[in-house]
Description:
Keywords: GTP-binding, Initiation factor, Mitochondrion, Nucleotide-binding, Protein biosynthesis, Transit peptide. The chain is an alpha+beta fold.
Amino acid sequence: xxxxxxxxxxxxxxxxxxxxxxxxxxxxxxxxxxxxxxxxxxxxxxxxxxxxxxxxxxxxxxxxxxxxxxxxxxxxxxxxxxxxxxxxxxxxxxxxxxxxxxxxxxxxxxxxxxxxxxxxxxxxxxxxxxxxxxxxxxxxxxxxxxxxxxxxxxxxxxxxxxxxxxxxxxxxxxxxxxxxxxxxxxxxxxxxxxxxxxxxxxxxxxxxxxxxxxxxxxxxxxxxxxxxxxxxxxxxxxxxxxxxxxxxxxxxxxxxxxxxxxxxxxxxxxxxxxxxxxxxxxxxxxxxxxxxxxxxxxxxxxxxxxxxxxxxxxxxxxxxxxxxxxxxxxxxxxxxxxxxxxxxxxxxxxxxxxxxxxxxxxxxxxxxxxxxxxxxxxxxxxxxxxxxxxxxxxxxxxxxxxxxxxxxxxxxxxxxxxxxxxxxxxxxxxxxxxxxxxxxxxxxxxxxxxxxxxxxxxxxxxxxxxxxxxxxxxxxxxxxxxxxxxxxxxxxxxxxxxxxxxxxxxxxxxxxxxxxxxxxxxxxxxxxxxxxxxxxxxxxxxxxxxxxxxxxxxxxxxxxxxxxxxxxxxxxxxxxxxxxxxxxxxxxxxxxxxxxxxxxxxxxxxxxxxxxxxxxxxxxxxxxxxxxxxxxxxxxxxxxxxxxxxxxxxxxxxxxxxxxxxxxxxxxxxxxxxxxxxxxxxxxxxxxxxxxxxxxxxxxxxxxxxxxxxxxxxxxxxxxxxxxxxxxxxxxxxxxxxxxxxxxxxxxxxxxxxxxxxxxxxxxxxxxxxxxxxxxxxxxxxxxxxxxxxxxxxxxxxxxxxxxxxxxxxxxxxxxxxxxxxxxxxx
Length: 827
């Protein structure tokens, strides 16, 4: 075959493929070998080709038999039936694919016998575990992108760092068309793009070309529980809301407009709960407000939730006006409250600061005019303005599910005007506003800035704290809601996976330490979304090293049969807070349902349930003490043998039993710990000896007894965690984590039987610091529960059990007490 050009060669390749010729692989170093072997055949029967080298530059002429400089190896060739019909014994015949595979198997199957004497066994490679997904702050960090209406796709790409091609493909998927990167996109589409690429969104709203007018201030009333916040608001608007609250405490965020009697202006008030469980509600109130009214009782002073309210106000950068309430009570001390405020860094006007302090009485309605004047003065200084036209910006204060009206949300408009009939997106929920009502239930067509209203028409119950976004159409509302739902599910699954990994690691560590952790699944149902979230967070604080509280579900509305079925499936109990429960059938009789309307009653019941489920901690406890009165020595049978010392003892407290661990103390120092070799009473072997009886005792490997030594008998007991609850919000599920012993001196100026305040300075393995113990009576109650109410170091607020033992009590000025303190870690 005379091949003169590359084109002719390619045509031959195509013809050979059409004839169905077989592809064989050969090893050929140059093109001249292929030429000399096959070019002498008939052109009708043979066509050949070779594949390009991986970096080849095309085919070259093969007519002269010279090798091409561009190609250095031949990969494939095509042959006719004549070539394949060669004899199998031809040494130049290339092997077929099947023959090469058989040859490889034969070669692989050949093994050489290893000499066990000379050959060393193969070394085992160390096991390298596969890489494990680790939680890192970098992985969890999300970039926040600021978007605004009318921004171009190119500007969005620069802010997010994402390529234009990726953004355009996302736009096509969601049904949006952008012809150029210079085209403007709406703020809703920009938010959807940011969520699809995994970024957080912050909306920027411009006030250019809009009408800006003054607006009323939004004031949040905060403070400790039972300091008179709701009563103060009742006095301002002449109502009696506080008397209708369950348990006499506020457990929801209330929003209403109060007309000031003196000036005639209106102020929007938010009433927040003061209980410790509603911390998130107070944080939301501080985030949406303009001014915080800090209510402090004149008789109680600064309390834990008062300090927390100050922290929330500082975090939100909101000014504070202090209202010292209950000034009409006999024990009121406003000056002490002012000093406490100054100690917390609140610069009040009495010391040259700018924080106004007003003394009021909600019961007698005194000082209300001064409080009104202080609020209006603070609002004038802030020069509060808002945009009144255009789409509204609002904030969800509370949300609930009504049986007849469906999902409802209480919102406060921050800017713009919210009108009935608009399409809105709130969190992951969307809907068309069917009705708008003010806080007295009167329908209205629109809501202006700083106006609290209740809206209905949503498809689901939103979360308290979500922003209300007005969109142009139902299609846009659905699209944005679906995009937020997808991002929420991604974040939820990621958080659940991280929590699962953390829980597995914790359980592995606990199993190595020798004790397991019991899980308590709980389903929470409440009347409003904010309360459901607050109750869930409060229950999670009851987690302990022995019991894990798992909130399986948290929702709004009454309890139905589906909730009971789910609780029975996952062996959970149900918390019904301010909601009703359907009739429980016999099939779900084993499901525990806790009905409560007051938060601290609920925490008390769940805490007791946790204590029942907790496996407890094994620890040694002093079962009895005996004092050595005399020593007897029994010589051995042989002279070279040492004798045995017998301690003649009298049991002073508790009981001493033979199977217990014995501890010998001399002058308060432990010299020996070991088992009891023999315990006799009146020459008879006994198992135990009670208080007031005498006995003979032999301790293994210890013979150096002295008169006056104290022998303690220790027994191992299972110690359950202790739940401590108070109406002020101090709820602890505690585990015994440390012991401490110390001595202190007390100046006795009166009789012994008094309540006294003691200070103990100690150092233990887990806790260090100074602790103040209040109300300790060593004479009347030597062992009792005491409250650790303050101190330094690691002790701020705690609870504990203290055993007081008198060491030397005489008619002297000083005496010494010894304390054995079982510390409880507080959560």
